[in-house]
Amino acid sequence: MPTIMITGANRGIGLELVRQYAADGWEVLACCRSPENAPELKQLAAANGNISVHLLDVTNAQQRKVLAAQLKGKPIDILFNSAGVSGSWSAQGFGHCQAEEWLDVLHINVVTPMLMMQDFAANVALSERKIIANMSSKMGSIADNTSGGSYLYRSSKAALNMVNKSAAHDLARKGISVVLLHPGWVRTDMGGPNGELSVEESVTALKRNLANVTFADSGRLLDIDGSTIPW
Ligand code: NDP
């Protein structure tokens, strides 16, 4: 049974990834920072023996270390870094940006996917599929930025794209593909009610893209239809 590890698995796209991969028969390591406050995830795990729930605030070095020790030697086919924050949309227009919130967004969206890759690449290298997926966004594309604003979120995803590109080079020698995924504009707490896709539609497409990933795709930023988003 292939194994997927998902961060931010308690709600939004992360939770739907858990649901769909578990339904497909994968072993799912569902990570979230507050399992006791994750009723939907706990319910899913109770009903599906192939889901285990793990405590992981991705910014918490001690929690990452404990989990890495628990999972030492376990093959992980896909490490999916889905956890992310946008920062408050009202506080990222020109003239409104503040350092503290910006640094939080960069910490969660840029630094922690890298630390997760460092901590769990050995597990991925042991697996058959050997994929790391980092959730990016079209909003991190410089080419796609025709409207300005959203400084905190845009800069964090643009930086994540560069982190991913370097990791794709560095992990090639272990045979690991490191890809960036755009999930579409999705109706979640982050995406809001006007998003174009339901979580079900988004995750169905993300899974299709991941199923088609080959080593030649490492370093790419994949749009929801599988095409490449320009940097
Ligand atoms: P949600 O706001 O619905 O969920 C965010 C998830 O990230 C939650 O599970 C949250 O956990 C988790 N998270 C945040 N900070 C941490 C942390 N420090 N440690 C562990 N988990 C954390 O967002 P989405 O599901 O919409 O987004 C998922 C990913 O997709 C993000 O990376 C986002 O940037 C990206 N994306 C989303 C788009 C959309 O339209 N929705 C578009 C493009 C990209 P908690 O409940 O504990 O806060």
Automatic annotation (TrEMBL):
<protein>
    <submittedName>
        <fullName>SDR family oxidoreductase</fullName>
    </submittedName>
</protein>
<dbReference type="Pfam" id="PF00106">
    <property type="entry name" value="adh_short"/>
</dbReference>
<comment type="similarity">
    <text>Belongs to the short-chain dehydrogenases/reductases (SDR) family.</text>
</comment>
<dbReference type="InterPro" id="IPR052184">
    <property type="entry name" value="SDR_enzymes"/>
</dbReference>
<dbReference type="InterPro" id="IPR002347">
    <property type="entry name" value="SDR_fam"/>
</dbReference>
<dbReference type="InterPro" id="IPR036291">
    <property type="entry name" value="NAD(P)-bd_dom_sf"/>
</dbReference>
